[in-house]
Amino acid sequence: MRIHVYETEQEACRAAATVIAAQLIRKPDAVLGLATGSSPVPAYLELRRLYEAGVIDFSRARSYNLDEYVGLSSEHPCSYHYFMQENLFSHVNIRPENTHVPDGDAENLDATAQAYDRAIQEAGGIDLQLLGIGRNGHIGFNEPGDEFIYGCHVVDLSESTIQANTRFFASEDEVPRKAISLGIGSIMSAKTVLLIATGESKAEAVRDSVCGPVTPKVQASILRTHPDAIFFLDRAAARLL
Ligand code: F6R
């Protein structure tokens, strides 16, 4: 695992976006694993800027998002489908049929999860996986627990995640209690993993992932065993290292 620390959130995210841009230049049909939440937003802005400047082209890129809430339709403004349209997809020339976000509104969620893993495998696996990190060390929605779950699966969101994500909803009651998430196996199978962590609230999770034992209690700690994982941190998130 390599760790890069920048003064500001902006710089950390720009650096991560630069690696994604380089991936697209080296492999125009790259399979990108994408994340939602606040952390990657400045990176998506930078990718939009690079696209508008003619530096990168998404026309052959394929993308698979990490996760989606259970029970929200893709049109719901708090859904991750909607987030991706707003923050990236509608601003670049990625083909809609090449973008994938798990269907959290499906009738049979287990079958949907299995099909999602198969689709990623059939696409050749993820070349570059972008991640944020939860305050409890989660990646995707792989919450702290007694094991690392390999495949895409339905998750009961932890109390800390529900509270952290209440800021996106009108009230805590509206935050879905379940999500569908890529498992640790698919994340670890990505050839390159980029994790963005910014802000004081991520400092403990970053410290525990980087300095503590590799344990499912801190799911991001598994990234220490990945051959090409890079953490992009701002000074605040790196405070306890
Ligand atoms: C989002 C995801 C989550 C977030 C994490 C941090 O697709 O998988 O793991 O990356 O909850 O969220 P923010 O960036 O909003 O602090």
What attributes characterize this protein structure?
241 residues, alpha/beta, Rossmann fold, seven-stranded parallel β-sheet, three-stranded antiparallel β-sheet, 7 helices, globular, binds fructose -6-phosphate
Helix content: 25-40%
- Bound compounds: fructose -6-phosphate
Structural class: alpha/beta
Tell me the major beta sheet: 7 strands, parallel
The DSSP helix count reads 7
Tell me what the CATH architecture is: 3-Layer(aba) Sandwich
Strand adjacency order, main sheet: 1-10-9-6-2-3-5
Average pLDDT for all residues = 97
Please report the first level of CATH classification, the CATH class. Answer: Alpha Beta
Ends: how far apart? 14 Å
The CATH topology is given as Rossmann fold
| Count of all domains | 1
Radius of gyration: 16 Å
Task: State which percent range the strand residues make up.
Answer: 15-25%
- From the spread of the alpha carbons, the general shape counts as globular
Could you give the order of the helices and strands?
EHEHEEHEHEEHEHEHE
Low-pLDDT runs: none
Number of strands: 10
